[in-house]
Amino acid sequence: MHTDFDVAIAGAGPVGLLIANFLGQRGIRTVILEQLPELIDYPRGVGIDDETLRTIQAAGLIDSVMEHVTPNQIMHFTSSSGRIFASLQPTTDEFGFPRRNSFIQPLVDKVLADGLKRYPCVDLRFGQEVAAFEQDDDRVSIQFTGGQPPLTARYLVACDGGNSLIRRSLGIKFEGRTAANRWIVVDIANDPLGAPDSFLHGRPSRPYVSIALPHGLRRFEFMLFDGEAPDDVVSDEMLHSLLQPLIARPDDIDLIRARVYRHNGRLAERFRDGRIILAGDAAHIMPVWQGQGYNSGVRDAFNLAWKLALVVDNKANDSLLDTYGAERREHARAMISLSEAAGVIFSPTNRIVAKFRDALVRFIGIIPSIRSYFLEMRFKPMPRYKEGALFYQQGYADNSAVGRMFIQPLVDRAEGPVKLDQVLGNGFALLAWGVDPRRWLDDQALRIVEDLGIKIISAVPSTQAAFERKRSDLEIVGDHQGRLKTWFGLQNRAVVLLRPDRFVAAISSPQEVSHAIKEFARIASIKL
Q1: Model confidence pLDDT, tens digit, residues 365-411
Q2: Element holding 18 (H helix, E strand)
Q3: Distance between CA atoms of 64 and 196, rounded to whole angstroms?
Q4: How far apart are CA 503 and CA 482, in angstroms?
Q5: CATH of the domain at 502
Q6: How many CB atoms lie within 10 A of CB 286?
């Protein structure tokens, strides 16, 4: 049945924009429907992690985005006495970028929107407010307010925020809670403090956060108490009283906005209803403590886009889309739990509780292994998919790399070192250590490789790379940092199948590679 578009996306936030960029790469007819007349131009999310930067790299926009990023943003936590008792300063770059960074969301969102101009198949429309929709076995019909003409699409992705009209209209429960206390966020241009990094001040008299942002912006967030800011209106007097202890001249600031908000932790009971799929805040919202709301939505986009593209291209059955919720929902739940726990730990208003926290953290800090665990942010739940579009050769195993994001070290090409993803490309990849896996591809596996456009690469020690290139027509990369050798050694396997979102789909020995490819294709509902 004919439709106006293959995919309609409700909402031009970062999730919708990234999905549209990935669909544009694959030539999918896509429309983004944004009810506002333009992109939001004030700061919202301020923390961007390594997984998100890698995702943006895959969208081909990383250089422009990094202009609005401060890498390696340290988060310091202070006690009730003002002493720094803990700092998050991870040094890992396993995915090719620093783990903690600050950014300016409106400027990054604009880069994502401008990126759509590369794709004639993608249409970004402002002033398009969804009023109603209905779906059948073949398509979704969408109606708008203001008498604008309706349109049809094969799939509708709801990226329309925490108050999602689409989710509510489908009757999908949004399970969780809203914290009783309120906070005020204050964004200021021409930073009156200027000091780098971020501070979470855990004083019980009034917990607050101070964050240095790129381009000379400063964010403060203050806990509000009962009776303050009635009706969520922030008076000039109150703003002055909050800022006066922190900056020299609180009346001489370039205020961008001051807004009251509440911490929410909610998760949709399901992420899919037929031809309608929830993503980003429409699917989950979480407190800001770990800066993971923005990043969790980006994980949704990376996970969903390649699956939608395969289904629309008739290369996979519709059931592949069920793996999106199976993979993403549990990790979103884990991030919500972490964010809520962090809020309890770092913002107590009871002095006795605060002193107990300070003492406990000081004790933990003298134990090197525990101290390192927190400094390196190893407590952050990394996405680990136990089921979905994955093939575990001998069943699920905790120590398997299947279902985890693959590393992104530097590798050597003939022209010099590059990040691994620049070699992998934007689709599936078969990466082998020291062998040519084509030797063991049977006819059916070879057809899958060709149909899915799986790129085949072999990695070798950099000392061997020049010699191997002379005797093979396969793409050869040198292991510039030795990290690929370490990774394959730990897995005791030589071939890994990588999905477009850089997650490990399967691992095998060279002689088992055909079986692994065929089993993954079966599990992922690939049309053979």
Answers
A1: 555 555 554 545 455 567 789 999 999 988 888 889 999 999 999 99
A2: helix 14-25
A3: 22
A4: 20
A5: 3.40.30.10
A6: 26
Is 137 a member of any domain? no
Q: How many residues does the chain have?
A: 528
Residue 110: DSSP 8-state: H
- CB within 8 Å of 109: residues ≥ 6 apart: 12, 13, 14, 17, 39, 40
In a domain, 156, yes or no: no
Work out the number of other CB atoms within 10 angstroms of the CB of residue 281: 26
Which residues contact residue 386 at a Cβ distance below 8 angstroms, ignoring those fewer than 6 apart?
Answer: 330, 396, 403
Half-sphere exposure of 101 (CA within 13 A, CB side): 25
Which of 232-241, 286-295, 311-320, 513-522 bottoms out in mean pLDDT, i.e. has the lowest? 286-295
Q: Can you name the residues that pair with 332 across neighbouring β-strands?
A: none
- Domain assignment present for residue 417? The answer is yes
* CA–CA gap between residue 247 and residue 238 (Å, rounded): 15
The amino acid at 94 = E
Residue 104 tokens, joined: 């300016």
Whether pTM > 0.90 for this model: the answer is: yes
Q: In which residue are the tokens 């340290």 written?
A: 74
Q: Phi and psi (nearest 5°) for 9?
A: -120, 120
CA–CA distance, 357 with 360 (Å, rounded to integer): 5
Task: Please state, in angstroms and as integers, the Cα–Cα distance from residue 122 to each residue in 4, 14, 38, 162, following that order.
Answer: 12, 15, 17, 25
Residue 501: phi and psi, rounded to 5, are: -90, 15
350 in a structural domain: no
